[in-house]
Records
---
Amino acid sequence: MEYETKISVIIPVYNTEQYIWDCVKSVLEQTFTYFELILIDDGSQDNSRKICEKVSAKDKRIRFIHQEHRGVSAARNAGIDMAKGEYLFFLDSDDVIHPQLLEAQYKLLKKTQAAIATVGLYYGRTEKFRKPLNWKTKTDCTEKSQYFTNKKVSVCPGNDKIDLFSIGGKMIRREAVRTIRFDEKLTKGEDTKLLSMLISDGADVVALFMDWYYYRKGRAEKGSVYSIEECRNIYKIQESVRNFEIENNKISKAVYTEWCLLCNMVVWYEMGKKNHDIKLERYIKKLIKSERESEIFSKVDWCRKIIFYLGCIDYPLYKRIADFMFWFHTKIEYRFLS
């Protein structure tokens, strides 16, 4: 008997043999069953491909393709091109989702007619998946949610109480994507760029205030070393988002995006010093000088400016303060809304 495909779950896979089964299992255990699961092996050198082939043979909803190693953007684009669903859901192969997530986001998108649904992140700090204690089944899995019009969202870390800078956990209406694809030339920030293009194109957003996307934080942090080119690409993406907000008179959002840019510069500058990357240090110094001369920088409040300058001098102290500010901005307002 043929099943109706409403959602296409797209998972790029590359050398994640120790995580992939937990990831796939979390999809197969969803309360919403009208989905297809697309696994794209991007030239893995471990047993990831064998695991994918094995699980795809056991469930007709799973489709598997293998390609030469071309990067995560190429893998996701391949998934988009072969997807049959009305909605696209993106999941990384080392992450896990709550069993009601697809159902909740599907209902919210149907109800609000938004183009994008997002969800809160649960930061797993261990290599082995451990089910969070608050992952309980909800009778009404959409009760803690909010709709944001296009004019009230911004692609910036920590902004608007919702995550719109990473693709994991996002469900997107297929008709909103059309010909938009991930930039295969980018190795960092490719998901931020795609989401910013969707927002710029008029996409509204509905947010589910439940931490139902299990993100393995520790594993991602191990590879957080950027080259000058990667920093330049991320800067250009966030700069374009900020400029779009200025052009559309969303000044408060533009100021916050500017703050995010400044925080990135501090991190990159510290990274250059720590790794004795003189070229990166020089590049960031020039970037900071240029940014300080911009009109939008003058609109950043004095408190954040002081923290920014502190970051250039005493990074450990800056990080403690910045982490607290990020926690306060997201957690306190999150609790108020929920």
---
Amino acid sequence: MKKCLLIMLLLLPLVIEAQIKVLEDTPKPTSKPYVVLYDSLSNISTIRDDSIKHHESYKHLIGQTIFYVEPDDTKSRVHHKSFYDTPEIKYGTTALPYDSCMNRYWKITNLVNYKPPFAVADKEIFELTDTTDGKRVYCEPRNMNRDFIVVGFYEKIKENYIGKTFIYNNTYFSEVWDNDRYNYLMDLQTKKHNKDIPEKTKWKCIDIAAYNVTKQDAMYDDYECRCPIILVFENDSLGKYYSYVQTKTGKPFKDTKNCYWITDKGHEEESILLYLGKFLDEEQEAYISKRDKEEKQYFEAQKKKMLKKYGKYWGKLVAEGQLEIGMTKQMCRDSWGEPKDINTTSTRYGTHEQWVYTTIYVYFDNGKISAIQDR
């Protein structure tokens, strides 16, 4: 009993204070949500469920409170979520008046399986209950990630980012990405991507909000499934910019910074997941700096050792982690470490070996490098 009381007291501040901030001219929500802890890395998406035929379900969302993000002009509303007073949503079913459902918090109370005529599989329909007046409506999951925000997910993102400092790390090298501005750091005033943001600039996350951009992207609105949460970052020199918390297709960012180090164990490769596809946090940056310093110290010690072992020409190449035709097997090991695999072929002309590394193949004839090939 005391334990339950303690949990209720801890959750009480969330019930009172939790409120989704909305940019632009959207009216304030009609009620405050009850926040339930959320453990998903995405906003509204399916999870695998082997107990059902199509293996994907939204059932993990039952009990969550969601906020409906109002479209910011009348034209775009025709592409947005429609609400119904029956779970049997099919062609010809009349939707509820839009204004009676907008700008509210809803609790997902159930999932109703409904099989439309001629459909191959059942369809999951959300049963939503208004947190203010208890009104019950139904809607399809289609494009839901674009129109709703799970309040628990919003609070989770807020806790993970607000007040923290991040280091910019631009991973986009191709001009093809220009059109996909949702994956960029955007100027808060101009809504445009600044291509000239310097690497390793520091940004503090100062705000989080729901931001609907359908007004300027109306023609693509029906295909836009990203979660409409943005985080606002500030840099002392560049000002305020924002970033979406998910990609344009509503998936978590999975971009990584690929690091390569040469150590006494050979070439080491490590992929470090970037925050929002474009940031390192201060701990990650400190780790990379530490590894870079260790690599520099290793090179200095290795150069002295290899010059002494192999002489000026070969010793310099080995110390710098280079490979060259004519090197011995031991030189190769000292330069690149042990290979992942060794394939041997013996003929009357001698023994041929292929050493397999992460990025290259090294070929030996009679104990010396005869060829180097990219994988």
---
Amino acid sequence: MAWKLRISGIVSESIVDGPGIRYVIFTQGCPHHCPGCHNPQTHDFQGGRLADREEILRAVRENPLLGGVTFSGGEPFAQPEALAELAREIKSMDRHLMIYSGYTYEKLLEMGKGNPAVAELLTLADMLVDGPYIEARRDLTLQYRGSANQRVIDLKKTREKRKITLYQDEF
């Protein structure tokens, strides 16, 4: 099966989408349609363009200033197979990986039981910003998130605390 990832766009150097300087991939397609969404152009699953895997990897590899990569959206977990493959490569470069999702962490764990790519993507990620954007809870003072219901989760610490091994479906 050919690798396919539909994206809305890329920001090659960002300081607002996670810690340090980041390469940000905005995935295309989102089932949440949160009112007031910052990226409504990413909602259409047929929009955007197909990404070039090697171009992405080359850009990440060749920029010594990058501290990590961020998957944003759209909804990254709507394309878990392609992103899990990309995440494996990013982690092999010893880069930090952060993911934004409109799903809660608990919902993603549940989804991972039926979809190994979701579980793998969660395992590879270092940080997760979870939960839908809720316009009534908008707060511009929050780091890395737009509304107070969203959480910034250190996934490594969370996995250690819960002793979760996603690859083996031990939830």
